[in-house]
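Lab notebook page, bench 4
Experiment: in silico fold of construct C2
Operator: M.H.
Input chain length: 257 residues
Purpose: comparison with the prior construct
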Amino acid sequence: MAQDTIITVSHLKNQLGGKWVHQDVNFSVKRGEIIAIIGGSGCGKTTLLRSILCLLKPTAGDISVFGTNVITASESALLAVQKRWGVMFQSSALFSSLTVLENILYVLNEYSGLSHTGQVELAKIKIMLAGLEPEAAYKYPSELSGGMKKRAALARAIALDPELIFLDEPTSGLDPRSAGGLDDLILDMRKNLGLTFVMVTHDTDTLCYVPDRVIFLGEGRVLACDTFDAVKKNHHPTILAYFSGHRMQRGEAWKEK
């Protein structure tokens, strides 16, 4: 597995509403890694993701993706980079008036250059890769379970054969079985498709099982970047406070039984 760096965040600063959310955020992501971003409420996890995705212009700092500074890149250069990543939003963000197949076709029709027949065949492959049954292609989002919606959103995220996938709370709102199935799917996609994943999550089961490294955000910077087990043992007061909550402790105790 190649270990070239595909994301570099350097001295990132974000000020929102007169408050510094990020003061000096620095980290990198290597090809083939699965990275999870965690931290307490208000630490700027979503703001960081939005900055990398160019949905929010940072106050200062640099963000490089695939060797391109996405903050200063031209429109055409930025589009070329954006075609190389996919995004699965927390709410799935599927078009409610379109079927699963049509949601994927919307992306392919806009950017793929394939014939309609080719688009349909490719969309069906993406649905299969996301672990959905073929008949799910013709269902509307309102007809899908929570887990199926997540998988449909992931199928759309991989429509253009991206190298990098961003996931915002991928298992939120799912029952344990569906969440576990999505965890397995992410690992399978990394293994079989060579994808790199960057996710924001609070799910301790996912954190124990899926990511190679965990980035802990706090106090406007990266307080730790290591395996989940190593981060849990970090003695920084903010990290200790995060893992001392009764829900977190109860979840850890349950897994030890």
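Observations: The chain has two domains: 1-76+163-236, 97-162. The chain has a mean pLDDT of 92.
Next step: discuss at group meeting.
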